[in-house]
Amino acid sequence: MGNRSTPRPLRYLFLFLLLGASVTILGSKIPLSYLKEAGSSSLQVLIEYRGAFEREIERIITIPLESALAEIRGVEEIYSLSEPGQSRIHILLSECTSLQDAYLETREVIDRIYRQFPPVVQRPLILRSDPRKDPVFIAAFPLESGESEESLKRRFQSVEGVGEVEVGGGRKEELLIRWIPDKGFPTGISFSEIGSAIRAWNVSGGFGDATGVSQNLLRLIDNPEGVEKVPLRRILTVGDIAEVMRREIPRERRARVNGEELLVLYVRPEGDGNLLKLSEQLTLLTRSIPGSSILYDRGTKMKSSLEELFLALGIGVVGVVLLTGIFLHTLIPALLVSLSIPFSTFSALATLHLLGKTLDVVSLSALTVGAGLVIDSGVILADRFMERSGPPMEAVLSEVKDPILLSTLTTVGVFLPLLFASPQVRLQFEPLALTLIAQLGASLLYTLVFLPVFLAVSHPPRTPTNPSASPLPLSSPHRATHRFHASPRFTILFGFLFLLGGGIYLLLQLPKGKDGLEDPSQLDFLLEFESGVPLEQVMNYTEPLERFLSHYPGVAQVRVKYERERATFSLELSAPRKTLVQEICNRASSIPHSFLFLGDSARGGGSLSVVLCGEGSLEDTAVAFAFHLQQAAHLTKEVHRTKEADRKASAYGRKFPSHSSPLGIKNIRGLDIVFHFKETLPSKRIILDPQRIGRFGLTPKEVRDYLYTSLSEPVIDKSITSQGETDIRLSFPYRFFRDSANLLSLSLPGTRGPGVRVSDVGALIEKQSPRRLYRTNRRRSASFTILTEFQDPSFLILPLRKAAEEYPFPAGVTIEIGKEWEEEAAKYRQYLGLLLLSLGVLLLILLGFYQELTYPVLVILQLPFSLAFSAWALWIFQIPLTLSIATGFFLSIGTGVNNSLLVFPRRRNAVSPLERFRLSFRGMLTATLTTIAGILPLLFRGGGVGGAAPPLSESFAGLSLVLGAGSIGSLMVLWGVVTLLEPKNPMNRKSGLFEQPKGRHQRQHPPGLSSPPGQGSLPGGGG
Q1: At what angle do helices 953-981 and 913-939 cross, to 10 degrees?
Q2: Angle at 162 (CA atoms; ends 160, 164), nearest 5 degrees
């Protein structure tokens, strides 16, 4: 570098060490996370109205709340379920909505609406979780541990990042006020008066003054004696007209682990919570409770996946360094070039940390992919420097600076269209894009600023043995010519057409998969029973299956949650699940009054949701339409209409035969239909006569309130005892109502005249009624799922919609089929648009570089053929196309351009692209191999249980496969293109495409791409 630069190496060294230490310290502080799921923001509102039935809950609670919640900013969809005793509302938020802001607005709305509810309605609970997602943490506690369900729920709910806590299997007591009719009727005291008195004497709250000191007012009733002393009228107390006692509440659910009954706790996270951090906090809290045990912790499995990615990154770096050493033939320059990897890696981590991001599986995979990309420019610079004989580093640097800059720019340029993507797509792209851009930027800084100085000091240029000979750094064209024989043009053209046509066809035929966090070591399934099957009977029916699974080889743990009409199984596996699933299906088929539901991944197929919305009851309409589809498709067996599943569940069941049908669906292997509602049950209704009610001085509301408090055992208030939160419940004696006659003979207080009974103001009728009322976007809904054996059943949507258009639905009924697949298709269309936009960005970059049209068009036209290699690779290995895998196509575009820059010079000369391809082949091959070496460990990442891939491993393997196949394909396509461009008569080359046009001004350019043959190659090959 001349005398001028003698003192500068130390300065550069100190500056590099300072930068390296800074980014290392800053990058090492970046927090870890796993994966932020797109569209995961949602809220739940749970409200208990003990003793009330579904229609009353829908009318009093659900409908008013839905109308108010719909006005909150960012609310996209609202789903609700009204069932006896409670209302559950699920709010889906838009992609740009802050979960915290939506939570605060929801709380304000509920506080306002809650004042309008009856006094016995419990305080609403707002949860920042998605009920469709599985628990991420499960812990168990002995029943004799002294921990109550309420105390456990409060302790775990206070942990930051927890969305919902569900506890099952524990025992709970309540304070029961059992009204004595013989004492209560003569006093004329109504149930509502008792409830008002209890609430007036059972108070707690806080207040403050101008000094800012908070004060608490606490007067809680926590024992039967305190309830009995509550005054009612004058000298009357509650104890004078009622019996007060403690009572153990009948358990609504029971939980077992490997046959042992325990208190089991399930935790779902907040929509945007950090699962790794949450796992650590939950683990510490669980271990602080004596006798506790952790049954399932997804955070631990995520840490294992991250450790595998770190290992893959290390293996990839070692492979890249070894290839670099083999290519450069010397150790010191190879190590200096390889310093770009840790420098760029920690620079990327520091950048992510400064931007407030976390290191998740996507950004960590990007670091692994980038390990092979960031080194290419340094390899070219070092190779060019060591092959030259004497010129200073400035000359070498000026020769390769522009090509290196352009190589980095084209790779980064493919991410520019991300600015125009939707927030959901940006959420998936952002970690990968930011990581790679930061890596490539840091690599560019190291290659152009620090590496030349280090190479000049540590490895002076060697003197050639024959100074008069023109150096051939990569390979001699005379030696290489006999290794490259131009194939016949017709064969190449036919190969290109076959490659592109087949690639497009296979890409369209590839099944569309979904990225997810499903744990392959877990197998969950549901046994749903008919309406009315009690908890004890569910346990009796299901216990044989539980015992069988507890002793089945390969099942490490069996967790069962028993509820009324339902048994939920969660299995921890240590062996492949295929034979186990079949055994479960066989044994479940013999369980009476039940139906088995399996997830799509366990069942081995995809599903389509069908949702009917309208007014009134839609269950019969949904059943009729499903049977219409059954008839149109010639189903061979009946569809069960008595089963229910949540939206993720699916079932083994009835099949369509494999022949064409009036729906226009051919070669169908199997379709099942599962309803998300059960058959209606008989219910008794009291029809009030308005004239009679008015005659006795009553209103319908007074009668309703009295009957509700008399029959439903309402919870009138809550108190805090040593066992946690305790309900205070009001009840009639059980013996008071034996049949309908007792109900009709019930006296109504507050009436004009003695002896007015229910039968005097109304009549009792019986009518079928559903026990669960579903609503979608503020309208009644009924849904069912069509289950298929196809991983991608989206091709069924159009014929099913056509059948729906021809069906005579009642007025006002709308139908929605396959919405989830339509949303996925919209994402793929947006990805395709971004891909085309990336090609446009690259074309603009190339036009600015070449300042003409021919070569940029040639470069862009090669890219579809290179991407076709990736499509063929996915088809050969039968990997479904997911949005994560589609990201690999963007990377393939950026890396594929760089090889073309080596053989299409910026200034045309007598040297043909084929000759330049021959001369640059070793450099391009090395760049391609370093890229593959960086991503190769991702292809063989962890096997999981019994060979099953861990969560997301298939997506990352597919991304690596797409990038690797695209890199190799770009090299092969480039060879075919330059062969086609080679003149048939070598004597006519000077008059061909490669000659500067006559009369055109000869521009002066840096010699990077226009240097004569033998002057080296350009960075970026396949990598």
Answers
A1: 170
A2: 150
CA–CA dist 191, 200 (Å, integer): 14
User: Shortest CA distance to 378 belongs to which of 322, 339, 427, 351?
Assistant: 339
With contact defined as beta carbons under 8 Å apart, do 893 and 868 qualify? no
**What phi and psi values does residue 316 have, to the nearest 5 degrees?**
-60, -40
| Helices assigned H by DSSP within 222-360 | 224-228, 238-241, 275-287, 298-328, 331-338, 340-354
Q: The tokens of 499 are what?
A: 């490659």
CA 572 – CA 555 distance, rounded (Å): 6
- Residue 9's pLDDT is 76
Show the DSSP H helices in 647-736 as ranges.
Answer: 690-695, 700-711
The two three-digit tokens of residue 894, written as one number? 């950026």
Q: Which residue has the tokens 């299901």?
A: 542
The CATH label, of 3.90.1300.10, 3.40.109.10, 1.10.10.10, 1.20.1640.10, for the domain at 820-997 is: 1.20.1640.10
From CA 735, how far away is CA 243, in angstroms rounded? 14
- What pTM was computed for the model? 0.75
For residue 260, give Cα distances in angstroms to 248, 264, 547, 562, 584: 21, 11, 11, 13, 21
pLDDT value, residue 509: 77
- Model pLDDT, residue 991: 42
CA distance 378 to 327: 12
Give yes or no for a contact between 291 and 145, defined as CB atoms under 8 angstroms apart.
Answer: yes
Asked if 36-128 and 820-997 have one fold, the answer is no
- Alpha carbons within 13 angstroms on the beta-carbon side of residue 461 total 22
**Among 744, 733, 669, which residue's Cα sits nearest to residue 703?**
744
> What integer pLDDT is reported at residue 544 of this predicted model?
92
Chosen CATH of 36-128 out of 3.30.70.100, 3.30.300.30, 3.30.70.1430, 2.40.30.40: 3.30.70.1430
Tokens 């929605």 appear where? 816
Residues 92, 75: contact at Cβ < 8 Å?
A: yes
Q: Which residue has the tokens 């919640």?
A: 69
Where do the domains of the chain lie?
1-30+330-460, 36-128, 518-598, 820-997
Pairing label, strands 566-573, 555-563: antiparallel
Class (C level, CATH) for 518-598:
alpha beta
For 1-30+330-460, CATH gives: 1.20.1640.10
Q: How far, in Å, CA of 712 to CA of 121, rounded? A: 13
Spatial neighbors of 885 by CB under 8 A, at least 6 apart, are 513, 874, 879, 955, 958, 959, 962
* Of 699, 705, 723, 700, nearest in space to 195 by CA: 705
625-631 contact pairs (CB < 8 A, 24+): 625/804, 625/807, 625/809, 625/815, 626/673, 626/675, 626/784, 628/803, 628/807, 629/663, 629/673, 629/786, 629/800, 629/803, 630/673
The Cα angle at residue 652 between residues 133 and 562, in degrees rounded to 5: 55
Strand partners of residue 719: 726
H/E stretch holding 890: helix 883-903
- Check residue 543 and give its pLDDT: 92
Two tokens, residue 312: 């893959």
Mean pLDDT by 10 residues, the chain (1023 residues): 54 84 84 66 87 86 92 89 90 83 90 86 85 85 79 86 83 82 75 80 66 60 83 85 84 86 88 81 90 87 80 83 82 86 90 86 82 81 69 70 81 78 73 87 89 79 47 40 53 84 81 67 87 88 92 90 90 79 88 85 82 88 85 45 36 33 41 79 79 80 76 76 73 65 73 68 78 89 87 85 89 90 83 84 86 87 88 84 78 78 72 80 80 77 47 67 86 87 59 43 38 37 39
d(CA 963, CA 366): 12
